[in-house]
Protein 1
Amino acid sequence: MSNINKLNKEFINKLNKIYKEEDLEIIYKWFNCEKRKTSFRVNTIKSSNEEVIDMLLQNDLKVKKVEWLTNAFILLNWDESDLWKLDLFKNWFIYLQSISSQIPVEVLDMKNWTNILDLTAAPWWKTSQVAAKINNTWEIIANDNNSIRIDKLKFTLDRQWVKNTKIIKNDARNIINNNSEYIEYFDYIIADLPCSAEWKFNTNNEKSYAYWSNEVVKKNYKLQKQIMKNIIKSLKKWWELVYSTCTISPEENEDICHMILCNFPEIEIVDLKINYEYSRPWLVNYENKFFKKELNKSVRILPSEESEWFFIAKFKKKID
């Protein structure tokens, strides 16, 4: 517990305002954890759950299926580095991906003949997960604003046999301004937005938390607000947008969702029912600000040895 004192005092104060004592114990354990469990997703474009399990058993690896996610597994023995040596990893039959980060794509109820936008496509797990979910059938537009990340995205998608994906380079705040044809164009939007990334924090690694400040949080809140105000225009009526972050900060989670519901009457929030021992409810209020009660349909994921911080909310655009 003493290692927690290495973290920014403002951050610790924020934690104490948000979480109960029993949850803080889980969080502190996570901060001090030297070795976290490895999780992965089966790439069903190239393989299947059954085939991957069989290959793992042949190599004496034990895994646990995450029952509430379609293709997610947790490694029970060996280390992540041991997976790297196996053909199923080298051939991209599996993709290392955290449990929490698989939720946003999982909760989208994708149907036929759709246009899909991965708004901030790097890291590239979202685009490849969507492609596997729809079995390379419909168009995915993967957007990012960084050429190096786009090159990595292209490499990763190619290795996973992802097809029907168009990669574009845009600042997410201006995607509609730069592409007017995208107004009410997308059936599904995945908005996993830039945030203060508190999931990285580990008291055994100073670099993982030294960058954090409330100013960083405020900067990301402003950026997210600009992005969401722009991108909602591109969502078709009756279709879905999933918003997510890997931070605990209410400014980057509930505050953004509250802003959406207050400023866009055509947008409603959809109830997420996630049966997970580390899922937690929304915040009713923070820093004397009360959030809309509809936010009780969103979900916070507590960090643990097998999961990381995450916040997920799903929205739908109504007909006027």
Note: The CA atoms of residues 186 and 195 lie 24 Å apart.
Protein 2
Amino acid sequence: MKRRAFIGDVHGCPDELLALLSKLAHESIDEICHTGDLLDRGPDSGAVVQICVERKIKGVMGNHESTVLKMRNQILKGHKHKNVTEKHRTIESIRHQDWAYLEKLPIMYAFDDINTILVHGGVLPNIPLYKQPFSICCMQMIKPWAGDATRWWGYDHIHERTEEENRADGWVRWYEVCNHEEIIVYGHSVYEKPFRYNNTIGVDTGCVYGGELSAVILPDWKYISVSAKKAYFPKRDRN
């Protein structure tokens, strides 16, 4: 059985990623993986991708990878954007040879030997894992057994609702109704420390907001973290 480390959302913070990898080097890790959202918000997304490529770090597609890939495809087809955005700067930072790595990221990774599933956002209940929709890349609140729609917790800017208002309408945090027997490792939702709820573990501890970059080592449930050098991006209610 391999020991694997699962790293939370890096969001363009290469110094913190290298610091965490240095710590993990002392832990007899067989394989290192990431939860997606390598990109945007931090100082150097391209450097983060380069590290993952060169060190053969496995991972899954995050909502930020998905959005950046879509914008790059638009640019390659000749679409012109009026304003330079964060996504444009991210695209410019990534080496040509590293795009294939991002394009091949799956929405889910299964590790059968430790009965673990790696995703970015979460999983829907009562749907076989091999049938999970692409929306799991940005999952936070769901309406169980009512399709694959998702909403943000905190203040939902899209629907202009608080979590309490969403809950009153039947929305819940996905892990509260997760009924899969596998361990689910995910990022996307920010916590102060790695957050374990039943057989799920969230490892995005807000590095880019000045928090920590964290990893969980399975199967022994050991947590390793490094502090961010600074807050690179103002924290928002949504992720």
Note: The CA atoms of residues 116 and 183 lie 5 Å apart.
Protein 3
Amino acid sequence: MLIKKPIDIASSEITPRATYLRRRDFLAALITLPTVSRMVTTTDTLTPKAAVTSYTNFYEFGSDKGDALRNGGAFKPSPWSVTVDGQCGKPGTYTLEDILKPHGLEERVYRMRCVEGWSMVIPWDGFPLANLLKRFEPSGKAKFVEFTSVERAGEMPGVRRGILPFPYREGLRMDEAMHPLTILAAGLYGETLPTQNGAPLRLVVPWKYGFKGIKSIARIRFVERQPVNTWQEANPVYYGFYANVNPDVPTPSYSQATERRLGEFFMRHTLPFNGYADQVASMYAGMDPRRLF
């Protein structure tokens, strides 16, 4: 059996041309402002797009890294809406157009790190999550933000198989959600997000492990108490709420001290907070760094 590695897969095999053109048209119809700025937080070489779009964790489509690419063809990212509720002044159901049009997308080049020991450097197209959350007028009681993914058994074979306790849920403390590094992404590499990367809207928190980057967001809820995220419920020995990248905290099976960048042969040393300690470490002053995973 011939097994292709992500770097060996041609872009034409990942996204059919007709689908690619339709997605570009869809994004152009939603966004009124072009990408106007670029934030580069690392000088590391970008991970090849073929790897980023073929080697993913999206358990709604299956547990294998290639399942979302193989099984995502039936998924419909349009039309889309996001329900907003909880401790806020402007709850409601907002269309994707409502969410995206007031914001000009900007490119953010971020290092991304996964618990499994691999990492990527990705140019995301998005905008600060804080800009969106402020529009909903969170109250003083809102201490956390809870996110929920869409759950469509008919389009998502992993949901039908019950791989995890779906729908997928994640959460951030309010100051984490409002941090300028935290973004909502609607694209990567200058193109609309493909299904396997979380279309049409996903969270990106670059100093945390990748499972915090919830995909295909369908609900945003402002809450008083720390929510329980899906992986924390499914396997709390491996997955905590904060999930800050910490090379000194091993999982029960392996060390987190090193990582392999997709497309590279040699291992790298894992950086505390994924290299963003100068920007975010102050938010966790006085907290046990081992418990932050």
Note: The chain has ten helices and 13 strands.
Protein 4
Amino acid sequence: MNVWRFVPPHFSHPVTNMAIDRVMVDIYKKEKMPIFRIYGWKPYGFSIGYSQKAEDVLDIPACIRDGIPFVKRPTGGGIIFHGDEVTYAVVCSTGDINAPRSVRDGYKILCSFILEAYRHYGLEPIFAIDSGQVKKERSSICFSSFEDYDILVNGKKIGGNAQKRSRDIIMQHGSIPLSLDHKPVLKYVKERITLSGQKTISISEAVGRKVMFEEFADVLKESFASIFGAVMEERDLTPEEKEKVEFYERELIQEKNCSL
């Protein structure tokens, strides 16, 4: 039986969300049970790629002045503003998803459940590499360019995903916008670009109606179970695991990798 631990949907502070994602790796190493969780961001805020420096990509004084939090992700990629969206995180081994050791192939396999979720709405998602629209432009912003396995709908990028590997352990998380608001990016991100709907699309815009968090979270969970033949064992974080989350929160604060 392909049993996965499912951490039920919830909304947390950006720092807490990234601390939980780190704890998931620790849990997997201990329990050897793959984990899938779905979450939202409260308050909204930025996440910064592991190799980025906050001061290089963000107007930090403006963020602090306006109470806009930011946090560093354990994964790479560009800066993302997390607003009205559904975010997921997966921690597993290559064997859990029958994936080859190739990062590119494993990434494609893991993202297949997201394509399934989009197809639920009658959409026709495609990887950028299969569309001929790969645009590897240099940018500090995740949604301003296409990578090989970014997902497109109607020729526009919908969401973003990032992965980190440690031997055969995969940690991947991704952001899927329910609606898009470019104003925070234009106001607080240092890179001066014209960020418009020409490159990106939200699930609500693609579907043609407002899709709520609870609805899409359910579709995403069902798509994941269907694609991977997963039996979901729902378990929230234990008191011991929550203590570890608090430890990582303090670590992020001490390293000045976040702003509350």
Note: The mean pLDDT is 90.
